[in-house]
């Protein structure tokens, strides 16, 4: 029996040490802004504005959170965000499921052209569609409405939803549908009772993507809505900076913590399904 050379062990140890060190370094760099946001949220204004960085508050305070929540438009903007995000998620998932089912299960003229068009639209940045969408919505009277903002977000997230869920539909064996048809099931029954439950991971991945895209957006909401009462929470965060008083960094960071909590909680609850859904959709599609 031969012993394993020591040099191989050294190479293996070195090869594992370097990636781990780089991963830790990048993690620290990425998590530091989040730490500083939370740190500043608990500082009084005098400590938040000091020229010397304080890595921990000397006098912990909740006044920044109180000031953020008690702003006049906070609850109205929160309601706007919930309505817009809910409508975006529902519409993107429903339209994405039916479109993915049609593109994966039916053969019709122009199917490949539609799939290529979906890929092209998905590759375009959302800001490139902002001005054309604004002009169209202005002409048909959808600016300053929930419907207009929801449709603008759906236009951005729908290509991703279709492509991800199409991968799950393709992975379902056709024999399952054939067996259901032999048993007398209609097309709608096959879709509702058989296919849709099997693509649930893709639905979860698409809904999370739609949720994050609509919840975090600032530019579209600021452009399409007309006054402060119609804005969503990302635009509300900008109200902490005024030309007269400057920027209330403590209040803005407290508002950012409040704004981030729903996304963090939502992501932690279904992170496993998100990873499996995106991976499976990308590989199988």
TrEMBL record:
GO biological process annotation, one example: transmembrane transport
Domain ABC transmembrane type-1: 78-270
Keyword field contains Transmembrane helix: yes
Signal sequence segment: none
Membrane topology annotation: Multi-pass membrane protein
Record-stated family: Belongs to the binding-protein-dependent transport system permease family.
Protein name: Carbohydrate ABC transporter permease
Source organism of this protein record: Kitasatospora sp. CMC57
């Amino acid at each position: 029996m031969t012993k394993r050379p020591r040099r191989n062990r050294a190479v293996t140890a070195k090869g594992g040490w370097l990636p781990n060190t780089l991963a830790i370094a990048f993690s620290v760099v990425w998590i530091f802004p989040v730490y500083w946001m939370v740190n500043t949220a608990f500082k009084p204004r005098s400590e938040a504005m000091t020229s010397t960085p304080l890595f921990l508050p000397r006098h912990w305070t909740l006044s920044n959170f109180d000031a953020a929540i008690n702003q006049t438009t906070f609850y109205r903007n929160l309601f706007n965000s919930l309505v817009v995000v809910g409508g975006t998620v529902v519409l993107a998932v429903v339209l994405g499921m039916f479109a993915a089912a049609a593109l994966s299960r039916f053969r019709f003229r122009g199917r490949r052209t539609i799939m290529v068009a979906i890929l092209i639209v998905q590759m375009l940045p959302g800001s490139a569609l902002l001005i054309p969408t604004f002009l169209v919505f202005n002409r048909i009277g959808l600016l300053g409405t929930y419907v207009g903002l929801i449709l603008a977000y759906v236009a951005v997230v729908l290509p991703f939803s279709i492509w991800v869920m199409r991968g799950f539909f393709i992975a379902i064996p056709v024999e399952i549908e054939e067996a259901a048809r032999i048993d007398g099931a209609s097309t709608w029954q096959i879709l509702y009772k058989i296919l849709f439950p099997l693509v649930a991971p893709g639905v979860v991945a698409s809904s999370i993507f739609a949720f994050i895209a609509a919840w975090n957006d600032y530019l579209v909401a600021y452009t399409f809505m007309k006054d402060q009462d119609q804005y969503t929470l990302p635009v509300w965060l900008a109200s902490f900076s005024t030309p007269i008083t400057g920027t209330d960094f403590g209040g803005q960071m407290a508002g950012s913590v409040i704004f981030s909590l729903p996304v963090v909680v939502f992501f932690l609850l279904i992170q496993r399904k998100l990873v499996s859904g995106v991976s499976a959709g990308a590989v199988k599609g």
